[in-house]
Design brief:
The chain is mostly helical. The protein is built from eleven helices and two strands.
């Protein structure tokens, strides 16, 4: 990656807080932090699941007595996903503040909205470039354009997964693991775990899970490391899911979302189209997003934000 590109990234990406430039002594009561992270993730998932039904009744969406599904109740799912995201961020901040007794630096800072929007732009750009390449080689063709429930479904997928998953995998697992393993090994470990977590999706594939390890595990980890906050990762993850399903009409992580703003036909080898895993299972996405993640890691190294492996005890906060 050329110095010019890295210099541009360095100027564009939000800078880390001064206290985050030092090795974050965030391992105090690490066991409680890990349990809290798992609890927040579970609570966010539960919120998304159980709030759909009362919300559907409250807003009068769908026919009474009919099953509540993505396609028949898209507004209810979007509202439920929004509540899930709010529960994830609020629950994480409250629990970490109580356990650590200090500022929750990964959620702090005056430029949270800016970083989130930069992340949204990054996720949208990467997905758009992937689709453009697939269209150029004849693997992606738009067959219809117009409003569809899939737009709201894609937004729901982005909100529900983008906040809860980033809090668990980057906010908790990556942040704690690098205290002992160093940034490199911690990033590799959490990337593998992130891919494994997606293999259980209904239409997931082994190659798709490996693709997520390489592209999303590295890219989203780098989003955290380059700022030492979660907002850039939140925005990137939300936009990645939304544009993949809600705009370009692809399945998302093997969850079978259906069409979005564009109804599209995918043709060609699954190695390029991603098959039922969705566009993120495409080799094009793997190459592009992994390269973007590596570029961001180089910026993080230039900023002095990567940690070496530690020997002995991790200092308490």
């Amino acid at each position: 990656m050329s110095g010019g590109v890295l210099g541009t990234l360095d100027r564009t990406l939000p800078a880390a807080l001064p206290q985050a430039r030092r090795a974050p002594a965030a391992a105090r009561r690490w066991g409680w932090q890990l349990l809290a992270g798992l609890a927040v993730f579970a609570a966010a998932e539960l919120t998304a699941g159980i709030s759909v039904y009362p919300l559907a009744g409250l807003i009068g969406e769908g026919e009474p007595g009919t099953p509540v599904t993505w396609n028949s109740h898209p507004v209810s799912f979007l509202l439920a996903a929004s509540l899930s995201a709010l529960a994830a961020v609020t629950g994480y901040w409250v629990l970490m503040r109580c356990i650590r007794g200090t500022t929750v630096t990964e959620l702090a800072g005056p430029r949270k909205l800016h970083e989130f929007l930069v992340g949204m732009g990054l996720g949208a750009l990467l997905m758009s470039v992937v689709v453009a390449v697939l269209a150029a080689v004849g693997c992606y063709r738009v067959t219809a354009v117009g409003w569809d429930a899939g737009i709201l479904i894609g937004a729901s997928s982005g909100l529900a997964a983008g906040f809860a998953e980033e809090i668990l995998f980057r906010g908790v697992l990556l942040r704690l693991a690098e205290q002992w393993l160093g940034t490199g090994w911690a990033l590799a470990l959490t990337a593998v775990l992130f891919g494994i977590a997606h293999i259980t999706n209904p239409e997931a594939s082994e190659f798709g899970a490996v693709a997520i390890m390489l592209e999303a595990g590295v890219l989203l980890g780098a989003c955290y490391l380059v700022t030492r906050r979660l907002w850039l990762a939140f925005g990137t993850h939300v936009a990645w899911n939304f544009f993949q399903g809600g705009i370009f009409g692809s399945d998302v992580s093997g969850n079978g979302m259906g069409r979005g703003l564009f109804e599209a036909r995918f043709s060609g080898p699954e190695l390029l189209t991603g098959g039922e895993m969705g566009i993120e299972g495409s080799l094009v996405a793997v190459v592009l997003c992994t390269a973007a993640g590596i570029a961001m890691l180089l910026v993080a190294r230039r900023r002095g934000l990567l940690l070496p492996r530690r020997n002995g005890r991790v200092p308490a906060q």
